Amino acid sequence: MEEDLETQVCMLQSHMDGMIQRAQKNEEMLKRVQSLEMRLLSLNSLRELIEHIHDDAKQVFKLESLALVLADENDEIKQFLTEDGFMFGDYQSVKLLSNIALFKEKFGLSQRILLGSFEKTLSQEFWPNESKAPQTVAVIPLLRRGVYLGCMIFGSDDEARFQVDMATYFLDRLGKVLSVCMENTLNYEQLRRSSLFDTLTGVNNRRFFEQRMDEEIHRSMRTGDSLSCLFVDIDFFKKVNDNFGHQVGDMALTHVAKQLRSQLRGNDVLARYGGEEFVVILPTASEKKGVEVAERMREAVAKAQLEIVGKHPLKLTVSIGVSTFIVDMPGASKAVDKAVLIGVADKALYLAKNSGRNLVMAGGEVMAVSAVKKKSA
After folding, report:
1. What topology is assigned to 206-367 in CATH?
2. What is the structure's pLDDT at 2?
3. CATH number, domain 2-193, options 3.40.50.620, 3.20.20.70, 3.40.50.300, 3.30.450.40
4. 191-195, 253-257, 295-299 — which is least confidently predicted?
5. CB 126, CB 106: distance < 8 Å
6. What pTM, to 2 d.p., does this model score?
């Protein structure tokens, strides 16, 4: 009787030790998952989010393989990542699917995690072609407000790792957090691109420029101050793209924008107008001052070479056209269409291009039209 009791006590002790060990492992896992979640929630860009998921989740969950499949019906995500310099070749486990109907066919409207062997659990369309297939998988759907954002797939070479009857608390939790992060990040990316900045060069975009140009024209009409507009074009930019590729072309755009901005005052406006063209607003600047600033910008670009890894430094130049808005009678002038001022600068730019490039040309002054009617004699 005494031996039976002692045996039961030993068995109970062993059982309790096992429970304590499992509780400790769960606590350690919870801490790692929480740390991962906090990192994901702190990110703003889609590129950073995907890179952290790929690198950190594999480490936290000790995975042999991981795939992130995102619904990208209109190639919007692909565009976001490309613009941000995401290296698709380094992250071949990231897959973008334009056929979003596949998600509904596989998961329905539930957020249930799918577990089991690779062959029985996962559709081939969801696994990256270049990646080695694991033995077992956990497929975590990413769903927000009834809309599929994609799914995350954990892969293991252990046949017993992901089984149908295993607990999925941590995976469920991570899937919900990641779904929120993905939705917020996509909304942020869309907002960022529809705002007033050019995402590549970091300067203002055309929309901002046109709004500000109207404001500055009206301000000049009130105060009588002159206003200069510069139209800037990178010389032989097509050859840069053709000879070095579009990635170097993007670097050249950013490089030139930096040099142009370095010559401006705090209240001046630099914007990317489109392609390799930039425009500048110089409030209170006369034609003489506008030409001086344009010359400094031209010289800054010509002197600052663009360093390219493994290649000779790239020398770039710009051609610049200048136009100036003049007001004779403050408060007594009609509004001038900004297209007129831009058009004069554009014609001057065309002349600089035809005169040999790497030049500044002044197109002349645009006079405000008086709104005061002259009295007849």
Report:
1. Alpha-Beta Plaits (3.30.70)
2. 57
3. 3.30.450.40
4. 191-195
5. yes
6. 0.51
